[in-house]
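User: quick one, fold this
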Amino acid sequence: MARGSKASYTGKQKRKAEHIEEGYEKSGVSKKEAERRAWATVNKESGGGKKSGSGRGKKENKSASKKGGKLGGKASAARSKAAKSKSAKKAAATRKRRGH
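Assistant:
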């Protein structure tokens, strides 16, 4: 099997990578970089390509994702109401300017 082949990944892993990739692209990361990050995430969490089958392989380690989600929530909660409002107005103006 050639390097970079996704043949040994399960359908679930492929869907997960696709979903992660979409998230990165939404946040402005290039297509190629988004794909690289998505597969790196899948590999880190599930330990690489797995053949499907009942009871095979090891459990997924989602600690990094969980930590990232918690940190994101903490950062937002620590900001003042005025700071969040200012940021939202700036984002709305940017979206309007770019035509989103």
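User: anything notable?
Assistant: The chain has two domains: 9-49, 63-100.
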